[in-house]
Amino acid sequence: MHPPRRLWWPARVPLRWKIAALAAATACLVALAVGVLVHVWTAMDVRDRAEMEATNTVYSAMDVYRRTGTLAGGAELDPAELPTALRHPADGDRRVAYDGRVEGNLGPSVWGAQRVGGPGSPVLAVRINMSPQLHDLRRLDASMAVASLVSLAAALPLAVYGAGLVARRLRRVAETAARISAGDLDARTGSALGHARGRDEVTDIAATVDLMADSLGRRLRIERQFTADVAHELRTPVGGLLAATDLLPPGETEDLLRARVRDLRGLVEDLLEISRLDAGAEAPVRARVPLAAVVAEAVARTGLDAEVSVTEAPQAPQAPQAPTVESVETVETDPRRLERIVGNLVVNAHRHGRTPVRVTVEGRTVVVRDHGPGFPADLLLDGPRRFRTGAAERGAGHGLGLTIALGQARVLGAELRLENAPDGGAVATLRLPR
């Protein structure tokens, strides 16, 4: 059994064209309904007038015939074309009947008939030709069709223009909502829509989006302030704990406690760094440094095993001059923040991936790759979140390493992209700006 065939329809139809098509269809339906009503009413009026004229003509002709014995007003006695229904009218009864036959320019017609005398006497009949009136009716239909087409041609551009205004306002609201979802909580629809007069559904949607952005901004500020307050409050007691561990006698307990306090201190420092990044209080201190050397130093500071390789970036074919040593081996950036980014990426690769971990430097690009299960799907979709490390099999951690790396990359104006390699493993690509 074959599946039902789907009718073709464009995958995406702009709203303005949908509204314009709906307006055009409505206008066509209204024009059709009005045209049908006018046609039916006019046709009934033509027939009623013809029947009335036939009745009056029969009355006048019968009066003349009875007084003078002559036929007047086109009257005939027992005409051959008289419809069967009128051949035997009652004595003195005037009757009319419709005859739809058309013979040349004659017809359709309305017949009026009345018996001249008693039973068996001839029937006086009058035929009223309706072809002139029906011709006028056809001209009226044509005129209404032309007028409907002209009105539709004039109304359609206005409908497209009006629908375009609504679609543009909705598009601006959607663009503002997209900016808010991308992290720009200062974006508002009020500036995008301008000072719109009145209030309608689009204005209500825009106001709702602004309220949502205000609510998200307040919640985020509260969260950032809470994180900063907790980190500041913990910094002093953690420092005291670290100093107190120096008073413990050497041994396994002292080593274990010192390691845990050191981890706690690292967590507090990470929280303080995140709060500064969230507040926008960080500014890079730029210097021209050799990129490969800074990357190698950052990997060495982690104390983890990672292979560092340097390849020369391919030159554009339209640039004939030879690249200078400065343009290939050095970059202008903040070396401390660059080391922080590379170190966090290497630690994350060892903690959540599997060896070998390779760090590749090519031009202004640094690539850190492991051979583990790769980044979780939700991390690739929504980005890293603090205190969330993904699947349980990815290991332990506070989920702050990638968050800090992304924040420091934004401070440097660099791009940090996270993806999974086709043959397995997580790939973090850092591209420094020129």
UniProtKB/TrEMBL annotation:
Keyword hit for Kinase: yes
Annotated Pfam families: HAMP (PF00672), HATPase_c (PF02518), HisKA (PF00512)
Positions of transmembrane segments: 21-42, 142-163
Biased composition (Low complexity): 313-323
Gene3D superfamilies, sorted: 1.10.287.130, 6.10.340.10, Histidine kinase-like ATPase, C-terminal domain (3.30.565.10)
Catalyzed reactions: ATP + protein L-histidine = ADP + protein N-phospho-L-histidine
Domain HAMP: 164-221
PROSITE patterns cross-referenced by the UniProt entry: HAMP, HIS_KIN
Residue intervals of the Histidine kinase domain: 229-434
Residues covered by region (Disordered): 312-332
Organism superkingdom: Bacteria
EC primary class: transferase
Localisation per UniProt entry: Cell membrane
EC number(s) given by UniProt: 2.7.13.3
Keywords annotated in UniProt: Kinase, Membrane, Phosphoprotein, Transferase, Transmembrane, Transmembrane helix, Two-component regulatory system
Primary location group: membrane
SUPFAM superfamilies, A to Z: ATPase domain of HSP90 chaperone/DNA topoisomerase II/histidine kinase, HAMP domain-like, Homodimeric domain of signal transducing histidine kinase
Gene Ontology terms for molecular function: kinase activity
UniProt protein name: histidine kinase
Source species: Streptomyces nojiriensis
